[in-house]
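U., I forgot to send this yesterday:
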Amino acid sequence: MSTPPAPSEPTIAKDFTASVEYLDRFAKSFETSARRWELIVYPSLFSFIVLASYGFFLIYHLTSDVAILARNMTEMTRSVSHMTQQMQVVSHSVQNMQVNMETMAHDMRDVSQHMVVISNTTEEMSKKMNSLEPIQSSIQAMDKSTRTMSTSTEDMRYSVRGLNQGINHAITPMQTMSNFFPMVPMLW
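Result:
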């Protein structure tokens, strides 16, 4: 095998200069590319951080809202359960009220029938009261007669009193005479 000839010094320097030039171009191209990527990556990274923070904020509020919703649903479940019990009580009360209303309707029918009987009885009493008018006239006439008799009795009382006083006046002289004549029997 043959060995390749050793490169000469100017070729090495040329190659080195070309390599440095290539490396410099590569570095500039990399820098340009990196700047382009920086223009894309940094704003994207900032946007990602902002969106991730906003997403975290939304998720945090969503979980707190879901927790509040769960508590409210639990409370609503209790309320619905209590309302169901109360509705059963109301239903039972309505059934009792219906029975009471039926009883009341039956009683009202009885009252209505009794009112018809009372009405008939009142009409009969009214007719009988109309037939009592002559009796009432007779009672009024008896009342007038009783008053007249009372007045007459009063007059008789005054007359008897006057007569009694007259007799007392007449007896007094006879008693005096009897004191003078003790032998005369008293006839009076």
